[in-house]
Structures are given as structure tokens and as C-alpha cells.
Amino acid sequence: MEYNYFGSTGLKMSRIAFGLQTLGWSVAEKDAFELLDYYTEEGGNYLDLADSYNEGRAEEIAGIWLKDNPKRDDVILGTKIFFPTGDGVNDSGLSRKHILQSVEKSLKRLNTDYIDLLQIHCFDRMTPLDEVSLSMDILVRDGKIRNYGLSNYTPSQITKTICDAEQKNRIKPSSVQLEYSLLVRSPEWELLPVCEENNLGILAWSPLSGGWLSGKYRRDRAIPADSRAGVGDRWDDNEEQRGGEFTYGIIDRLIELSEKYDRPASQISLAWLLKKTPCIFPLIGARKMDQLKDNLKAVELSLSDEDEAVLNKVSSTGTPYPYSFINRYTRYE
């Protein structure tokens, strides 16, 4: 495993992070323990959850594994808050009430005294920034969390959050979790630069676009009935992530490079992400052991500049204004 510093936290994080959304859904408890054992034995040290995953069951399973586990101090444990966790009118969002209650419940489910990285799962238009930053300060002061991050925020929302915290001498966010892959490259326009300028760690969720970039879906072949696309799990994807000529054009190039490097297409996709910048940590999920083993080996693969350029070209959707204008007349020296 390879490691790099995660933003400004001072923590060294494994370059491949492990997302545990499948726990309690498509991965049973016994299988989850085997996956967690293998991931940590191979040097992986970041586990990503959310209080809303499978009605809290994902956190419960992870908590059973963590209980009395000497690896707890070696693991960087992250979870998220925002989405509904019950039927009550205040069981969602970023009110101080919901945040503080949710963290207490997560700590109990996870069998731990602290959360290393608490992430806000989505920007909340209805809750002032001051309320959110004060809640984070309270949680850090009380030792319930070590750091906090943002997820599914716009660049301006990230900047406003940082400025608000600086003005009030409060804890600033340490990271951003965002969707980024060969099929979703829009973060390159502004999100990634904002993160790099502010030394924020970047967790890239859905780096394989729900399996579309893993090699399991091919042009002119039926989509496997038991796959995520086959069962209609990808409910909120962008249009380009549901097949079509653009998607299959990328897949064609991945298959060619897969044959060239004698590596699975999933490793090619992840290696492309890892090559972008050291501050990006792809967040992989796994239902089966062979998926986890294959994906962890992506850190061993180094794409040539020429092959990276091929993938950049085939996955480009163009750059909108004003980014295109700025790029035309501004060059990094």
C-alpha cells in the first residue's frame, strides 16, 4: 500500500480508501469482516461510512468489527451526516440538534469514543453556516470528532465555509468528498483547484461509476442482470453514466489498455485517478473479495503519460465558459 498526507490533518492515509455502503445491504456481516480484515492487513487504513447507510446497519457491522479490535488506533474512521435517519421532522439536515444527536448515535453503533473524520454529506440550504461551524467546534472541543469534511458542496460553498470559520476562529474543514471519475470530470473545472489551494484532502467517490468503468459492461453486450446497472441501483447518475456512445468510447479505450498492461479495466480507471494528484484518494466499494483484491492492486500500476493522455481525450466533455476562456489565455508556469 502507498500512503500520502491527507490534506492538512497530518494523517497519513492509504491511497485507496474503503467505502462501506454495501455493509448490511449486499454484504452480510461475516463477509464484511473478511473484507475489512483483508483491507487492513494489506495496509488500507481509511473506512468510510454514513449514519444513513442501510438505516445505520453499515455502522453497526463496522462497530462489531471494531469492538475490542487492536486495529482501531491504526484505522482512520470516517462517517457522514445529513440524510434522514428516522421519521421525525428533525431527523435530517444540519441543525445542531440533528448533528449532535446523530454523532452520539454513530459513536454508539461504531463502538468507539471518537470519529476521525465527520463529513457533512450534502450542503444544507436551510441551515446557516454559523450553525454548522459551531456544531463542528463543539464536537471537536468535546473530543467526539478529530476533523470534519464536506461532501457534495459547490466550490463557492466550500470557500464560504472556510472563510466563515476563519473569521470566527473556528475549526476549518479538512477535506472534501466528491464524485470524480473518467465519466465525471467536472470537478477539474473548479472543485479540485479549490481543494488544492486550501490544502483539503480529496476523497473521490464512485471512481468506477457504479461498475461502468470496471470492464463488466461492454459495447453490444447485454448488461448483466445481477449488476448494479442491471438492477437499476444507479438512481441519480448523470446521463453519461447510463451507457451510450460516450460511455462505451471510454470503455473501449479501457479494454485496450487493460490488454496492454495485462490488468483489469478497474485498475486502469483507478490508476488514472491516482496519477492526477497525490491529494486524491479513490474511495472504492466491494461486494466480493476478488473485487477488493483487484482494486487494491491499482496502487502498483503506473500509466504512461501517453496512455493517460488517451484516457483524458476520450473522456473529455469540453470545458464550459468561463473556464475555457481562462484556460485559453492563462498558463501555469
How would you explain this protein's 3D organization?
InterPro entries: AKR, AKR_Detox_Biosynth, NAD(P)_OxRdtase_dom_sf, NADP_OxRdtase_dom. This is Aldo/keto reductase. Residues 15-313 form the NADP-dependent oxidoreductase domain. With 333 residues, the chain is α/β, with parallel strands linked by helices. The chain has a single domain (3-329), classed as NADP-dependent oxidoreductase domain (TIM Barrel), CATH 3.20.20. 38% of the residues lie in helices and 14% in strands. Helix 1 (29-41) runs parallel beside helix 9, helix 7 (245-261) crosses helix 8 and helix 7 (245-261) runs antiparallel to helix 10. The mean pLDDT is 91.
CATH class label: Alpha Beta
Structural class: alpha/beta
State the helicity in percent bands: 25-40%
What is the count of structural domains? Answer: 1
Question: In total, how many beta strands?
Answer: 10
Low-confidence stretches: none
Distance between the amino and carboxyl termini: 33 Å
Based on the coordinates given, report the CATH architecture.
Alpha-Beta Barrel
Q: Could you give the order of the helices and strands?
A: EEEHEHEHEHEHEHEHHEHHH
Q: What is the fold named in CATH at topology level?
A: TIM Barrel
What kind of sheet is the major sheet?
8 strands, parallel, barrel
Q: Give the radius of gyration.
A: 20 Å
Q: What general form does the structure show?
A: globular
CATH superfamily: NADP-dependent oxidoreductase domain
- How big a fraction of the residues is strand? 5-15%
The largest sheet has its strands arranged as 3-4-5-6-7-8-9-10
Instruction: Tell me, rounded to a whole number, the average pLDDT.
Output: 91
Output the number of helix runs. Answer: 11
Keywords: Oxidoreductase
Protein name: Aldo/keto reductase
Pfam family, one: Aldo_ket_red
Domain NADP-dependent oxidoreductase: 15-313
